[in-house]
Amino acid sequence: MTTQRIGIEVSRAIAIAAKLANVDVVSAYPITPQTHIVEDIAELVADGELDAAYIPVESEHSAMSACLGASAVGARTFTATAGQGLELMHEVLYIASSMRLPVVMTVANRALSAPLSIWCDHSDVMAVRDTGWIQIFAANGQETFDNVLCAFRIAEDQRVLLPVMIHLDGFYLTHMVEPIYVPEQSKVDKFLPPYEYPLPLDPNKPITMGAFAPPNIYTETKKAQQANLTAAKEVILQCWREFGNFFGRYYSPVEGYRCEKAKVLLLVMGSLSETAMSAIDTLRDEGKEVGLIKLRLWRPFPFDEIRRAVRDAEVLIILDRALSFGGPAGPVCSEIRSALYNEDKKPKVISFVGGLGGRDISPDGFKEIINRGIEISQTGSEQEFEMFGVRE
Amino acid sequence: MEKYAVFVPKLVTKRENFAPGHRACTGCGEALAVRLACKALGQNVIIVSATGCMEIVSSPLPYTSWRVPWIHTLFENTGAVASGIEAGLKVIVRKGKRPAKEVKVVVMAGDGGTSDIGLQALSGALERGHDFLYVCLDNEAYMNTGIQRSSATPFGASTTTAPAGKMSIGQVTWKKNMPAIAAAHDIPYVATACPSYPFDLMAKVAKGAAIHGPAYVHILSVCPVGWRSAPDLTIRIGRLAVETGIFPLYEMENGKYKLSIDLPQLRPVQDYLKLQGRFRHLSEETIKEIQYRVNKEYAKLMEKVA
Ligand SMILES: Cc1ncc(C[n+]2csc(CCOP(=O)(O)OP(=O)(O)O)c2C)c(N)n1
Ligand code: SF4
Ligand SMILES: [Mg+2]
Asked: pLDDT tens digits, residue range A39-52?
């Protein structure tokens, strides 16, 4: 079999990526819009196409906990969740990163209850921002597929040994049928070597995992973890370079679209960037100097790349798909603003929150956001940030 | 008895896989239970501990008491962590990524970690039929956090969150029957044990580990701190729990129940209660109520055994 381009639902492509990665253990609990991913993996296992243990656990807390156990004995481990499921995993997520268990997880981004919403936004992501996972946002199906493969390689790199989340927007991506390049197994095997965990639980070499830290040592463990996650960026960049050399598609932490001489920049994460691109095209046709920035690497945060990407603009408009209730801006905007604060040369940063709970933003919507953002940059706003598309 | 003591060291391995030097309190029944269980288990195990006294006393960085592979992650998820280890081991051995070797996955968790916050993960693991042994170390309260009540705390006991007072006798609910809940999952092996009966305990742990499929051993473990008892009475109090019928020792194997010790006659519960400060406030009437309940529960068990 050679590389094929097939029309396929993105969830199904993720299952194929997990199969090509030859995962050993998948432990998951169903939640919309993640279900197709895990159903497809269960099917691959049932049909004997993937030799793995599929553990149908009784909750997401247990899904991630079983991943910890599997990873601790040296199994390549995968799971997927969304929204409430990610929240239920919350405390377990810290264990995976702090104990350096390289679990890979796709998150079908979903709004948080209440009111219940199965539709997309990034509230679930933002609530797990500080859990110590490497976090990558995909903008389309191919990016999702490619980055699931990359995730295993990054996570299992001996210099990293950290869990990785691949974020993809619920429904907008999970349920989308897209043409996706699926490489042949032998090529994936070359890109993703078999996994060897350096210190698995093994009676031949007993180790203690998860000891507790008195105050005289806790800070040092956290310093080490912070250094480890920050240093992972180099490995991520290297992995993306090599992925590009292997498969011809290159990724970077921050990507610009029509940013040449742009005075105004719009920044988004996830699938909305595809729509935003067409808004940028129209505005460029109208002669406006606008460009788009896609933020792909969310953790570790790509400070240098962001600073470089926006330095020459006058206005930077950031659209968040999550609220920080009572806070200064959307979470992405807050971070970028603080990353720029001490820079001598920096744009004005304007915050919008929109696209909550599956609310669509059309190309015209993006035009509106950009125009209003420019207006705010000149006249100011009465609010710290504005919510876009709220029906009065 | 004296003569027997001469032979004891010959019957039991000298190797301590749960090493001395841990920080458990004097007279701790749980530490003793863990030590005996580790002797019975040998070295081909992976132990999964829940947050709780035994985890804390055994693992302050950079020290460890564990001479076998050991993992602690959280309080309520040991059933799931064990599931992942067991399933993971099986598949990587099958795929040739790890040499084939019998390794038993063994959970150790307190009564809180078992019958309260960890019940869901445990139930899931039992129901899915993972090949593992679950050992519940039951000291009848959340001791690690300071003697708060759990659903395994006995009726009438005073704890810090169900204290005895003018308007309360302390715990007003009857102890949750955790072994019966485990057995209701139709697993092949359930047993109760107590370190006051060390050989019985070791035999049950060894049997639970040898059985294919989920096994559950519930160990009553005296906690002098939480029970407000003299540390040198730990063994005696454990025996009295059994001799009064408050904590009968039995096994359930493939649905068949068997008493481990046949007691011609039960001692009055008062013999057990009076040695513990947590029951000090109880009136004669309440003690009668406890006696009535113990007799009734014991009779129910005898029906199963018959
Ligand atoms: C989610 C969560 N809630 C609460 C705690 C606090 N906590 C740690 S140990 C413990 C009690 C342990 O009781 P038990 O399981 O009976 O074990 P013991 O200490 O009595 O041996 C509690 C409440 C925690 N660690 N995690
Ligand atoms: S508090 Fe009780 S169970 Fe905990 S270590 Fe001390 S004696 Fe043992
Ligand atoms: Mg307890």
From this structure: 999 999 999 999 99
Alpha helices for A107-214 (secondary structure H): 123-127, 141-156, 185-191
A7 interface with B at CB cutoff 8 Å: no
DSSP letter at B113?
A: I
Q: What is the mean pLDDT of residues A28-57?
A: 98
Of B226, B242, B49, the C-alpha closest to B150 is B226
Q: B67 in contact with A at a CB cutoff of 8 Å?
A: yes
Tell me which CATH code domain B2-305 carries: 3.40.50.970
Best residue of B73, B127, B130, B132 to probe chain A, by most A CBs closer than 10 Å = B73
Q: Is B56 on the interface with A (CB under 8 A)?
A: yes
Omega of the bond prior to A183 within 30 degrees of 0, cis? Answer: no
Asked whether residue A113 is assigned to any structural domain, the reply reads yes
- Is position A364 within any domain? yes
- pLDDT band, residue B3 (cuts 50/70/90): low
**End-of-domain residue from the set A212, A247, A282:** A247
CATH of the domain at A281: 3.40.50.920
For residues A271 and A240, membership in a common domain is answered with no
Q: Please, which pLDDT band fits residue B65 given cuts at 50, 70 and 90?
A: very high
From residue B240, how far is each of A191, A239, B26, B246 by CA, in Å?
64, 64, 20, 8
Q: Judge if A324 and A220 occupy the same domain.
A: no
Of the residues A247, A279, A306, the one at which a domain ends = A247
Q: Cβ(B150) to ligand 1 under 6 A?
A: yes
Is A392 part of a structural domain of the chain? no
* Domain span including residue A283: 256-387
Residue-wise pLDDT tens digits, A64-105: 999 999 999 999 999 999 999 999 999 999 999 999 999 999
With cut-offs at 50, 70 and 90, classify the pLDDT of residue B5.
low
Task: Give Cβ neighbours of residue A70 (< 8 Å, ≥ 6 apart).
Answer: A24, A25, A27, A53, A77, B84, B85, B87, B88
Mean pLDDT value across residues A152-171: 98
Q: How far is CA A383 from the centre of its chain?
A: 29
For residue B53, give how far its alpha carbon lies from the nearest alpha carbon of chain A (Å).
Answer: 12
- Give yes or no: residues A222 and A340 share one domain: no
Contacts of A254 (CB under 8 A, 6+ apart): A293, A294, A295, A296, A297, A302, A305, A306, A309
* Domain shared by A230 and A320, yes or no: no
**Residues of chain A contacting B63 with CB distance shorter than 8 Å:** 211
Nearest CA to ligand 2 atom 4: B53
Q: Do both A220 and A262 map to the same domain?
A: no
The pTM of the full predicted model, rounded to 2 decimals, is 0.97
For residues A215 and A284, membership in a common domain is answered with no
What total of structural domains would you count in chain A? 2
Taking an 8 Å cut-off on Cβ atoms, the answer to whether A66 and B72 are in contact is no
Nearest CA to ligand 1 atom 25: B75
Residues A315 and A232 in one domain: no
Q: Is the ipTM of this complex over 0.90?
A: yes
A17 in B contact zone (CB under 8 Å): no
pLDDT tens track for A256-314: 999 999 999 999 999 999 999 999 999 999 999 999 999 999 999 999 999 999 999 99
Report whether residue B260 contacts ligand 2, using a CB cutoff of 6 Å: no
Say yes or no: A228 and A267 in one domain.
Answer: no
